[in-house]
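User: New here, please read:
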Amino acid sequence: MIGRLNHVAIAVRDLGAATAVYRDTLGAKVSLPQQEPTHGVTVVFVELPNTKIELLEPLGETSPIAKFLERNVDGGIHHVCYEVDDIIAARDRLVAKGARVLGSGEPRIGAHGKPVLFLHPKDFLGTLVELEQV
């Protein structure tokens, strides 16, 4: 059901400093910062040959990333994102198998302009999982 790994998201306190590590130290190509107010984040995408790294900085005090950084002072991996062909079919199959979808259960438009859903980390080995329709 799941396809390729779309990205690994890393929560950071300082997006500029994190971007510099990937761009200047590791030599990666990085996007310009992009504010996503509906998700409460500013993102930068690090482009790799086989996937992406998504650097997430909180956008406001109520951001889910701000809450994550309260618990994880140094930041760290926030979620992994897998591609699916049909997000509704994937959601329905997962729910039928007992997985919990976060929020309303309806897909929202993510940072790539495509429908996304998040799955409860307790159902996936302690890892927050994002599904993105491709």
Q: What stands out?
A: The helical segments are 15-25, 64-71, 87-96. The longest strand covers residues 76-84.
